[in-house]
Amino acid sequence: MKKFFLTGSMIAALFILSLSVAQAQVSVISNATDGVSGPAIPTGGSGLGTPSQVATVTTTIATILDLAVTTGTTVPINFPDIASLDNGVTTTGAVSLTFRSNLPWFVNVAANSSTFSDGDHNTPMPSSVLFYKLGGTQTFIPLTTTASSVVGTTGAKVQRGAGTIAIDYYMNPRYDYGPGAYTLALTYTISNQ
Fold this sequence. Notes:
Elements (H helix, E strand, L loop, with lengths): L7 H20 E3 L6 E3 L25 E7 L10 H6 L1 E13 L4 E6 L5 E2 L11 E5 L6 E2 L5 E4 L9 E11 L10 E2 L2 E6 L2
């Protein structure tokens, strides 16, 4: 068996070599994303600079109350025979309204005139001969020039959102008005107040 003796200078050299290797391991890090090595990143307390900052984002959202007639801008309701005048005509889904609102809302409808235009001028047909209702509900309501609710009310608004609602019409002039083509304009309004 051979014995080795280390002198003091050899021990000092090994200690310095060992210390240099340990420092190299501490002071060089590998960048995991690109494999490039670089100096160690300080992780605490006594470095210069501010390690974090606050940034603020502001935004302004406009009030949106939007209503569009997507189907039913012109709705023909015809009475071609005795049965239609005896029973009236229901037009399911006559009008489709698309709404968008970021406020609670409701929709009203009103006739633009108290009577239909054209037709038999000797006996004007009142707007109340035409009835409407929200699709899927039971009760038809006569149209007048006073705005009345289609969906929601000032006291019971619909929650904000977007979607489509359908409106049904029913009309029965019976034999009270002469033959001819009659016209009535209606205004649908979405509101928050």
